[in-house]
């Protein structure tokens, strides 16, 4: 019979200068991934026109094509991250998704673009489970939230750069008309955008090879029938399942509550530029630049604020401090998301988007941090992958589509996107908060049990 026991803690790297270097490299990888992921938010009009598709069909390209395979591939790749080289896995993943992003620029139909987006999702599934595991081994718990939040800054910077770069490229392409590239041939502006944002990721993959694998902390050991106790390089799936089932209340409430919430967060990210164009008549390039700057400034500020607050509460002995910050994120974001429906000018609309993004970003780094705090080392990648499976499959896969469906089938007017965003937030944010709050006590108990592993 095999049993799982806590291993004696191993000494790992502290939050030294090199540890922060690792976080910066991982942040660059995250930035690269979100540029490739979020560029779709600026290309709604050109791609819809090229393929003659609706908002709902476009949302499948921007959301489900990516999110479904990102989620499905997350668990098997996380199994590798929990027992093999996390550095190597991330480097290969960056190379793959960068090439697939460039391949999006070769798409000549809805389905070829759909398949290329699937490839982007498969590649990006390698990053976060391995990155969260690496960072948790490099940093003590007293500064873990800040380290994870700095890593997650890649989301806001990447999303912002996607809109900034995309806006400039699309504006340039519209000015010069058809573009003819060597080998590729005649290319539309939106296709050129994918080439420009995809291929530079190869340089990040090479930089990832400078990262060292840290010793794994908080490991479990397997005790075999012989009585010998040995380090477990990879915990069997049945033991992983047993661990999660024993703490299902904590994991289920946290993951489901966050998933419902991020349906709104992803929707704001995907539809933000289009909201500015449809509601206030902004030009595509101007909307991209404005929303890009907004994402970088307010999103980054929100991530750092949320991480610092979570560390402060946790270090005061408030074991559910991370979860409390997430609830604060929900409460702060909701009124400004609702205000999108009635904002009378572009300036006020941008202000509402900015403040909503600031509060929404609180949860970015610490949502996965809660999972890390509840989980032993050899399951951390799989635990984060489970969270991302649900959050991305439902949050990113269905969130933007739900907003598109409200626009297409409830309001039946492209110009009503502002109302769709507000209505979606009014329903989903309170529901997510109720589910999350219902399990905070169980999360607190699970974190308390995990303290013995470190």
Automatic annotation (TrEMBL):
Entry-linked Pfam families: MFS_1
SUPFAM superfamilies: MFS general substrate transporter (SSF103473)
Localization, UniProt: Membrane
Membrane-spanning segments: 18-39, 59-77, 89-108, 114-135, 147-170, 190-211, 251-271, 291-310, 322-342, 348-371, 383-406, 421-441
Domain Major facilitator superfamily (MFS) profile: residue ranges: 22-444
Main location: membrane
UniProt-recorded name of the protein: MFS transporter
Organism of derivation: Henriciella pelagia
Lineage of source species: Bacteria, Pseudomonadati, Pseudomonadota, Alphaproteobacteria, Hyphomonadales
């Amino acid at each position: 019979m095999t049993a799982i026991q806590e291993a004696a803690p191993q000494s790992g790297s502290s939050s030294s200068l090199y540890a922060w270097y690792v976080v910066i490299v991982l942040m660059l990888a995250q930035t690269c991934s979100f540029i490739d992921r979020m560029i779709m938010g600026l290309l709604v009009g050109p791609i819809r026109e090229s393929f003659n598709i609706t908002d709902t069909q476009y949302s499948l390209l921007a959301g489900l094509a990516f999110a479904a395979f990102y989620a499905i591939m997350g668990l098997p790749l996380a199994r590798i991250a929990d027992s093999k080289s996390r550095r190597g896995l991330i480097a290969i993943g960056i190379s793959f998704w960068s090439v697939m992003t460039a391949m999006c620029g070769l798409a000549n139909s809805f389905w070829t673009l759909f398949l290329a987006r699937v490839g982007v999702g498969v590649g990006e599934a390698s990053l976060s489970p391995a990155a969260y595991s690496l960072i948790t081994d490099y940093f003590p718990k007293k500064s873990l939230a800040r380290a994870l939040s700095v890593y997650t800054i890649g989301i806001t910077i990447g999303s912002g750069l996607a809109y900034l770069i995309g806006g400039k490229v699309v504006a340039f392409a519209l000015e010069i008309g058809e573009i003819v590239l060597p080998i590729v041939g005649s290319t539309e502006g939106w296709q050129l955008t994918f080439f420009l944002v995809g291929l530079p990721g190869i340089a990040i993959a090479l930089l990832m090879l400078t990262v060292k694998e840290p010793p794994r902390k908080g490991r479990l050991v397997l005790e075999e029938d012989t009585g010998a106790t040995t380090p477990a390089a990879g915990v069997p799936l049945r033991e992983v399942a047993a661990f999660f089932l024993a703490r299902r209340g904590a994991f289920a409430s946290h993951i489901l509550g966050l998933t419902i919430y991020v349906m709104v967060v992803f929707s704001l990210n995907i539809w933000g530029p289009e909201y500015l164009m449809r509601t206030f008549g902004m030009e595509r390039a101007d909307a991209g630049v404005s929303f890009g700057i907004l994402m970088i400034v307010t999103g980054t500020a929100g991530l750092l604020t949320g991480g610092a607050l979570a560390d402060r509460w946790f270090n005061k002995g408030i074991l559910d401090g991370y979860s409390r910050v997430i609830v604060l994120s929900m409460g702060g974001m909701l009124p400004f998301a609702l205000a999108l429906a009635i904002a009378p000018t572009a300036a006020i609309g941008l202000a509402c988007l900015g403040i909503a993004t600031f509060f929404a970003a609180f949860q970015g780094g610490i949502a996965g941090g809660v999972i890390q705090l509840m989980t032993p080392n050899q399951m951390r990648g799989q635990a984060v992958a489970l969270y991302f499976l649900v959050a991305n499959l439902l949050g990113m896969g269905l969130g933007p589509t739900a907003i598109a469906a409200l626009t297409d089938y409830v309001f039946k007017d492209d110009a009503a996107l502002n109302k769709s965003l507000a209505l979606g937030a009014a329903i989903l944010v309170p529901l997510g908060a109720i589910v999350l709050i219902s399990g905070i006590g169980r999360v607190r108990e699970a974190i308390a049990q995990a303290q013995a592993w470190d």
